[in-house]
Amino acid sequence: MEIDILKLTVAKAHEDMKAGLYTPKDLFFACKKNIDERNDSINAFLEVFDDAEEMAIRAGEMFQNGTATLMTGIPVSLKDNILYKGHRVSESSKILEGYKAPYDSKAVEELKKVGAVIIGRTNMDEFAMGSSTESSAYGITKNPLDETRVPGGSSGGAAASVAMGGCLVALGSDTAGSVRQPAGFCGVVGLKPSYGTVSRSGLMSMGSSLDVIGLLGKTVECARAAYDVIAVADSLDGTSVSDEMRKAVVSKPVTKIGIPRAFVQMEGVTEEVKQRFFETLEKLKQNGYEIIDIELPHIHYSLPTYYIVMPAEVSTNLARYDGVRFGLSVPGKNPDESYMKTRETGFGREVKRRILLGTYVLSHGYADAYYNKAIKVRHKITKEIEEVLKTVDVIVTPTSPAPAFQFGEKQDPLQLYAADIFTVPANIADIPAISIPNGMNKQNLPLDIQVMGSYLHDQDMLSFAQKLEQIISQ
Ligand code: GLN
Questions:
Q1: Closest listed residue to residue 413, CA positions, set 130, 149, 126
Q2: Which sequence spans correspond to the domains of the chain?
Q3: 10-41 pLDDT per residue, tens
Q4: Inter-residue contact 404 to 158 (CB < 8 Å)
Q5: DSSP state, 257?
Q6: Could you give the CA distance from residue 432 to residue 251 in angstroms, rounded to a whole number?
Q7: pLDDT tens digit string along 411-453?
Q8: Has 79 been annotated as catalytic?
Q9: Pairing mode, if any, of strands 433-440 and 446-452?
Q10: 178 catalytic per annotation
Q11: Substitution candidate for ligand 1 out of 122, 136, 178 with most atoms within 8 A of CB
């Protein structure tokens, strides 16, 4: 039977395999075929894992002995910053070229337990810093829907891996939008869970207070299926949400939708994005949802706040790449020289820029003016969002101010930073958010819409997102 991966969802694949129409091994080879055909040009995958076929065979046995569940046999790709024991992982940086993961990340551990097939490793902006996957040390990734355009970033390879039919689910990381924005650019769904609901154990750190593993799939249901497997408490992550806290969440159906109108209409958001966004709101209204205008007066400080807090955390987190403990080591006359030469050779431009920025905002004499102030603003924005979410059930905005741009179009780093305007607030405030395709524009590029929910109300947000997905397709 011919398997059309581009039309297949996790639920449908599960049903088919349960009915014996094909096996996880057939499914793996159908994905592999798409990768063989398109990856030379797209470069979403840095590698297909040698043992993926074996995993698929084992998943097949689970179908036979009746232990298969929804994610059994489903091909899943991993962003190049998520640890998978014995396999290479490099942050798409020269500094970790050839480095192998010494243990499994919690997310991979959980996926292995249910028999998911870890198919390969996907390209990304170096150390997850970027919005276009142009800063990888291993070449750019192209948008499978229009190869002259970027796939977004930093999880551009992850989004492209789903959009090209290389897998059904991709794991990415989202520190400020790196799952949602590329999902939007590639016409797939991207979920950023509440901070701490998915363990960061085995996710290489960027901005530890903002980082979370996220999921990409063709539909909300696909992302949700994988989320349900990996969203578990973990004693190895001090910021992991406990079982008690998870159980204490009282589910609340979404009826009231908050729109930060001034934010959505600010300068830089393209006409087509605004127009489609308001058309979709109209459809929501027709479907009985209450649309409520909300004010978030400090939300536009999210971006500057993020670009102080994140580099500060980056500069400390990346100090560990010293030429002694991991990956690349360039010899020098003494340890200091080796340290400098290793970092000079191993890190790319954007990474160095952020280390410098971070070191500056944390330095004596400047920490109060920058870092400590940014932390205060972060609390203020979080409070504001929390208050608003007492009056509405979700907040809806576009995901990106404009659809996928062309390679080299945004040379100025500040222009690239501005692409995160709608996605940053959810990371600042720890809340869950999801990007859903919102039709195509005149050039046939995907547009997107973002839903943000209350902290730990990921399931309520997902249920609403599934309805919104249906409404958009009507
Ligand atoms: N565009 C953001 C940045 O460059 C994305 C970061 C992320 O979510 N990993 O920092």
A1: 130
A2: 1-474
A3: 999 999 999 999 999 999 999 999 999 999 99
A4: no
A5: E
A6: 14
A7: 888 888 888 999 999 999 999 999 999 999 999 999 999 999 9
A8: yes
A9: antiparallel
A10: yes
A11: 178
